[in-house]
Amino acid sequence: MADDVGSIPELDQKKYDADEQVKIICLGDSAVGKSKLMERFLLDEFRPQQLSTYALTLYKHKATVGSKTVAVDFWDTAGQERFQSMHPSYYHKAHACIMVFDVQRKITYKNLANWYKELREYRPEIPCCVVANKIDADLKVTQRSFSFAKKQGLPFYFVSAADGTNVVKMFREMIKRAVDYKLNPSDFMDEVMEELENFDLEKKEENSEADENGLSKPPQQPGSTLRLIRPARVRDQTFSGNSNSLAFESSDCVAMTRKSKDNR
Ligand SMILES: Nc1nc2c(ncn2[C@@H]2O[C@H](COP(=O)(O)OP(=O)(O)OP(=O)(O)O)[C@@H](O)[C@H]2O)c(=O)[nH]1
Ligand SMILES: [Mg+2]
After folding, report:
1. Quick one: which of 106, 125, 177, 237 has the fewest CB in 10 Å?
2. Where are the alpha helices (DSSP H) in the chain?
3. Does pLDDT of 188 surpass 50?
4. What residue's CA is closest to ligand 1, atom 11?
């Protein structure tokens, strides 16, 4: 049993600060085909058996965008109702989101509104798209209009993980949008986080300079800087092929605490 998600290199989210690393998350109800879409894109295969994702799977992919090679981490999680809402660390530092519904199950389309609301609470500005999956089961659905994406101003794709329709196109466009977002973040929180991280680094440098000059360090004020508290415990960790799976045991989450001077 691992005791700290931060100690699992694949899940150390600091790596997403590097220019050539992006994180793309996938949202949608259970059995809409999130994992099958990833498998279709990454392995170009489709095995119809259903195995619901257990908590979290991380798929790694190298993509070329312009002249750059970019490492893309796709985060895939179970859309099961029992989870109700997603673990906050799932959204943390995500650069794009793919929202999926099943054209054969109306409820999965209706539930997009809930997924989208939660996404925007954590990531107000990241690029997002809506994906109507399983069109192979009934091609006539492509004649219908699904207004949710239009209302929210989001790109919309009819796809099929089973026969591959539009899958590569959709993933490539989302990777490009994630990279563009990474280079020009319009998310206020991203900028605040970056400022605070730089501020913390500068402070550390000042302290070590003071040390070198034989000066004493200023006393550390507990809670006066921004701290990232990582999920405390991990129940299970398995590695297979190019993906990692793990489960969070409790609702412990990536939480940010910051006490201002006035609160001390
Ligand atoms: N006909 C058809 N079936 C599909 C397609 N994509 C997925 N399925 C089937 O839908 C079922 C669920 O697919 P998954 O990819 O496991 O669904 P998921 O969204 O990852 O589900 P959770 O992990 O439980 O959240 C499987 O039985 C797949 O075979 C598709 O494009 N066409
Ligand atoms: Mg799945």
Report:
1. 106
2. 34-43, 88-91, 106-110, 112-122, 147-152, 167-183, 188-212
3. yes
4. 31
243 lines ligand 1 (CB under 6 A): no
Cα-to-centroid distance, 169 and ligand 2 (Å)? 21
Helix, strand, or coil (residue 254): coil
Q: How far apart are CA 159 and CA 180, in angstroms?
A: 23
- 136 Cβ closer than 6 Å to some ligand 1 atom: yes
How remote is the CA of residue 130 from the centroid of ligand 2, in Å?
Answer: 17
| Interval between CA 48 and ligand 2 midpoint (Å) | 12
Which band of pLDDT confidence, cut at 50, 70 and 90, is reported for residue 234? very low
Amino acid at 88: P
Question: Are 108 and 101 in contact, with CB atoms under 8 Å apart?
Answer: yes
Q: Please give the domain boundaries of the chain with CATH numbers for all domains.
A: 4-183 (3.40.50.300), 188-262 (no CATH)
Cβ–ligand 1 contact at 31 (below 6 Å): yes
* CA R_g for the chain: 21
Q: Which residue type is seen at 202?
A: E
ipTM topping 0.85: yes
Q: Whose CA is nearest to atom 15 of ligand 1?
A: 33
Query: Ligand 2 center to residue 101 CA distance, Å?
Result: 12
Q: What is the distance of C-alpha 238 from the center of its chain? A: 20
Alpha-helical (H) ranges within 93-155 are: 106-110, 112-122, 147-152
pLDDT at 105: 97
